[in-house]
Design brief:
- Helices cover about 35% and strands about 20% of the residues.
- It is of the alpha/beta class.
- The chain has two domains: about 130 residues, 2-Layer Sandwich (Nucleotidyltransferase, domain 5); about 160 residues, Nucleotidyltransferase, domain 5, CATH 3.30.420.
- It has a five-stranded mixed β-sheet. A five-stranded mixed β-sheet has the order 10-9-8-11-12, with helices on both faces.
- Strand 5 and strand 6 form a beta hairpin.
- The protein is globular.
- It binds zinc ion.
Length: about 300
C-alpha cells in the first residue's frame, strides 16, 4: 500500500483536492464547485464523501488537510471570519470532518497553507519569509525561524489591511486606504478608474498590466502606484520582522518580472538600511497547487511527529 495524504484548498468558488505522496508528488487532483451559502455541516459531509470515493484500495490515507479562506483559532481550532463562505461565527469544522473520517486532520488558513507549499517545494527558500498572495484581495503567510506565525487569534498575516494611504479608498473592513484597496486585482482596477476619470470603465488587472507593458502612460502610472504601495507595506513588515525573503503569488503575479522588478525597487526604496538587510523578492513557483501541497505537507508533519 502506498502512503498518501489529501490536501484541500477550499475557495469561494471551487474546492480543490489533491492526493499527494510523501515526497510531494500530486498523484491526482480534482475539484468540485463550492456550494453557495450552504451550512458547514452539508459542505463537510460532501467533502468526506469526495475523499472516500477517490482513495483507492491500494492507497493508505494517512490524513487530510483543509485550507480555508478564514482564520483558525489556535486554542480551539474553530474557524471564523470566512466572509466569502458566509460563515461569520466560530465553526468547529474539524469536528464535522471527524464525524466521517477517523484519521489525523489539519486545518489552516489558505494563505498560510500556500506559504508552506511554496516553502516545501523550493529547496532554496529561507526560514524567515513572507508569502504574499495578490488576487481579489491581498493575503499573506509569515514564517519566522522556520515556523508559521499565527498570532493570538490566528489572524496574523492580514497584510491586505495594512494601511498605506489613510485618506485613500474605503475598504470592506471599514477603514480607508488598506493595501488591498490599491494593490489587489480589484484595487488596481479601482486605481485605473480613478486615474482615467471614468468610474465605470470595464477593465481587468491583467489588461492594465498588458497595456503597461505596451507603454501606455495611464496604465504604467497605475501599475507603478500599485507596486509602490505594495513595496511600502512589504518594506514596513520586513523592517519589523527582519525578513530574508518575500514570495509574490496569486493571480496578479502572472504579470511576472514586470511586476517583481517594480516591487523590488519600491521595497529597496522604503527598506531600512537596505544595503545591510538584503532581502530577496521572488515570484511564486507553484501557482494553483501551492495550497494543496501546503496542506499535504502540514498533514505529513503531523503524522510524522
Ligand atoms: Zn481593510
Amino acid at each position: 500500500m502506498e502512503d498518501v495524504v489529501i490536501g484541500i484548498d477550499f475557495g469561494g468558488t471551487t474546492i480543490k483536492f489533491g492526493l499527494v505522496t510523501r515526497t510531494g508528488h500530486i498523484k491526482r487532483q480534482w475539484s468540485i464547485a463550492t456550494p453557495a451559502k450552504t451550512a458547514p455541516e452539508t459542505v463537510m459531509a460532501e467533502i468526506v464523501q469526495e475523499i472516500k470515493r477517490r482513495v483507492s484500495s491500494a492507497e493508505h490515507l494517512l490524513g487530510v488537510g483543509l485550507g480555508i479562506p478564514g482564520s483558525v483559532r489556535p486554542d480551539t481550532l474553530a474557524v471564523y471570519d470566512c466572509n466569502n463562505l458566509g460563515w461569520n461565527k466560530d465553526t468547529d469544522i474539524l469536528a464535522l470532518l471527524q464525524k466521517g473520517l477517523d484519521i489525523p486532520l489539519v486545518i489552516e488558513n489558505d494563505a498560510n497553507a500556500a506559504t508552506i507549499g511554496e516553502k516545501w517545494q523550493d529547496s532554496t527558500s529561507k526560514d524567515n519569509l513572507m508569502y504574499v498572495t495578490l488576487g481579489t484581495g491581498v493575503g499573506a503567510g509569515i514564517v519566522l525561524n522556520d515556523q508559521l506565525v499565527h498570532g493570538f487569534a490566528g489572524a496574523a498575516g492580514e497584510l491586505g489591511h495594512v494601511i498605506v494611504d489613510p485618506k485613500g479608498f474605503k475598504c470592506t473592513c471599514g477603514n480607508r486606504g488598506c493595501l488591498e484597496t490599491v494593490s489587489s486585482a480589484t484595487g488596481i482596477v479601482r486605481l485605473y478608474q480613478k486615474e482615467s476619470g471614468q468610474d465605470e470603465v470595464s477593465i481587468t488587472a491583467k489588461e492594465i498590466f498588458d497595456q503597461a507593458k505596451q507603454n501606455s502612460p495611464l496604465a504604467l502610472n497605475v501599475v507603478d502606484q500599485a507596486c509602490d504601495y505594495l513595496g511600502l507595506a512589504l518594506a514596513n513588515v520586513a523592517n519589523v520582522l527582519n525578513l530574508e525573503e518575500i514570495i509574490i503569488g496569486g493571480g496578479v503575479a502572472a504579470a511576472g518580472e514586470f511586476l517583481r522588478a517594480r516591487v523590488e525597487r519600491a521595497v529597496d526604496k522604503y527598506l531600512y538600511f537596505s544595503a545591510q538587510n538584503h532581502i530577496t523578492i521572488k515570484l511564486a513557483s507553484l501557482g494553483n497547487d501551492a495550497g494543496i501541497l501546503g496542506m499535504a505537507k502540514l498533514v505529513l508533519q503531523k503524522v510524522n511527529k
